[in-house]
């Protein structure tokens, strides 16, 4: 079964996840951003620490 089919099949039983980000020193939910701020958030590069640094 494809991933998209599985997601559609279980759509009603899934729990909604709220994503928060730190803006100007405090945390805000991304869903409350305007269209421009959401686009800016999607373009950000996510930091991934390599396991060699640990």
Give a count of the beta strands, DSSP E runs of length 2 or more.
2
N to C succession of SSEs: HEEH
Cross-sheet strand order for the largest sheet: 1-2
Structure classification? alpha+beta
**Individual helix count:** 2
Q: How far is the N terminus from the C terminus?
A: 37 Å
Question: Spans of 5+ residues with little confidence (pLDDT < 50)?
Answer: none
What is the 3D shape? extended
The average pLDDT is 84
Main beta-sheet annotation: 2 strands, antiparallel
> What is the rounded Rg?
16 Å
Helix coverage percent of residues? 25-40%
Indicate the proportion of strand residues. 5-15%
InterPro entries: NrdD
GO molecular function: ribonucleoside-triphosphate reductase (thioredoxin) activity
Task: Tell me what you see in this structure.
It contains two helices and two strands; from the N terminus they run H-E-E-H. It has 54 residues and is α+β, with helices and mostly antiparallel strands. It has a two-stranded antiparallel sheet. Strand 1 and strand 2 form a beta hairpin. The longest helix is centred in the last third of the chain and has 9 residues, at 35-43. InterPro entries: NrdD (IPR012833). GO terms for molecular function: ribonucleoside-triphosphate reductase (thioredoxin) activity.
């Amino acid at each position: 079964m494809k991933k998209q089919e599985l997601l559609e099949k279980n759509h009603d039983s899934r729990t909604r996840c709220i994503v928060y980000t730190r803006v100007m020193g405090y945390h805000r939910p991304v869903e409350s951003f305007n269209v421009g701020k959401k686009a800016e958030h999607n373009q950000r590069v996510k930091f991934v620490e390599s396991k060699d640094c640990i």
